[in-house]
Write a structure and sequence with these properties.
alpha+beta; Immunoglobulin-like; 2 domains; 6-stranded mixed β-sheet; 5-stranded antiparallel β-sheet; 4 helices; 21 strands; 16% helix; WxLIP_PGBD; WxLIP_HBD; transmembrane
């Protein structure tokens, strides 16, 4: 794998403008992310450690080993009693290049030294009477050792519905659990010293997204800071050939600190073909640029398995072809039978 990295340096005035622009993009615009129809409202109450200028999520500077209290005011907007629970999560980057604050990655990035969900205590179920307002406190415990950059995640505040069994006449009951949630972001650091973002290309492989064939390129942000305004351009070719088989590009993506995601390059309905391929990928973030070239192999068994699972590929039997082959087989059988009969009964052949 070949990797190139290029830095551009500007004059002082351009550097100052870049810092101002970076400040606008440095922290996530989280606000309140909601799911479905909510019957309650959440308002964060900010402590003294809150960074000035942010009022939609917790943005804190805390010392090593320090404990802070995150206060949330919950308001039941309905006349009926409800139950609510608060769970902490560590931010990660999803396949679309968007930072997720209210869920956990299936597998945390190997460079993540402190998971925010392990530093924040989850709440018990909180009962709210009709139209009741209640404040709750969620402690966050900073790591004892100092760290660079940011720890990022979110508090997911979900209404918990009672499980209900729907029992058809001759079938077993089906448990249905509905949840509606807010997500309040959390960003904490020991200091606001800037950290230079850096990326790595970890892997390239045949994959599927929503049951459709794609080639995935795993891009890793191994630094404890956001990668903002991320743009990616990628092409795939067969080794030794110049024709571009597949390509993809995306702009204005963002990566969470110490996270990775699989950038998908769609096959646009094509079947995987076994063989050796080469990926050329260029990524940019502001004035930073990364360029990679990496070869990879698609095995025949892997291609067949993925092609069968692709919902856009017709893998059903070709009955016309099967019928034609069957007809040819029957005709051959008749011909062979007649030849054998002729050899066994030569006397019946007239003159």
């Amino acid at each position: 794998m070949m990797k190139y990295r290029k830095y551009n340096h500007r004059k002082t005035i351009m550097g100052l403008l870049s810092i101002l622009i970076l400040f606008l993009f440095l922290f996530p615009r989280m606000g309140y992310a909601n799911e479905g129809t909510l019957t309650f409202h959440v308002t964060p109450e900010f402590p003294e450690s809150q960074i000035e200028g942010t009022n939609s999520y917790f943005n804190l500077t805390l010392g090593p080993g320090e404990t802070e209290e995150l206060t949330l005011t919950l308001q039941n907007a309905s006349n009926e009693p409800i139950k609510v629970q608060v769970t902490p999560h560590t931010a990660y980057t999803n396949v679309h290049g968007v930072v997720e604050y209210g869920k956990d990655a299936q597998t945390a990035d190997s460079t993540l030294t402190h998971s925010l969900n392990e530093l924040i205590e989850p709440s018990e179920e909180i009962e709210l009477s009709g139209n009741e307002t209640k404040s709750i406190v969620i402690p966050i415990h900073m790591p004892k050792e100092a760290f660079e950059g940011f720890l990022v995640g979110g508090l997911r505040i979900a209404e918990v519905k009672e499980e209900q069994d729907e029992t058809p006449s001759d079938e077993e009951g089906v448990a249905i659990k509905n949840e509606f949630a807010y997500v309040v972001g959390v960003v904490v650091s020991n200091s606001r010293d800037s950290v230079q973002p850096d990326l790595e290309l970890l892997d390239v492989f045949a994959d599927q997204l929503n049951y459709r064939n794609v080639i995935s390129a795993t891009i890793q942000n191994f630094t404890p800071t956001f990668v903002n305004r991320l743009a990616v351009e990628a092409t795939v070719q067969r080794v030794g050939e110049n024709d571009v088989l597949y390509e993809a590009s995306e702009e204005m993506m963002q990566m969470a600190p110490n996270s990775n995601f699989d950038f998908p390059i769609s096959l646009e309905g094509d079947r995987f073909q076994s063989g050796e391929y080469v990926l050329n990928l260029r990524a940019t973030s502001g004035e930073e640029e990364w360029i990679w070239e990496q070869t990879f192999t698609i095995e025949a068994d892997e291609a067949r398995s993925l092609n069968r699972a692709d919902v856009t590929i017709d893998s059903s039997m070709n009955w016309w072809m099967i019928g034609a082959i069957g007809l040819v087989g029957i005709l051959l059988g008749v011909i062979v039978y007649l030849v054998i009969q002729k050899k066994e009964n030569p006397s019946k052949v007239k003159k």
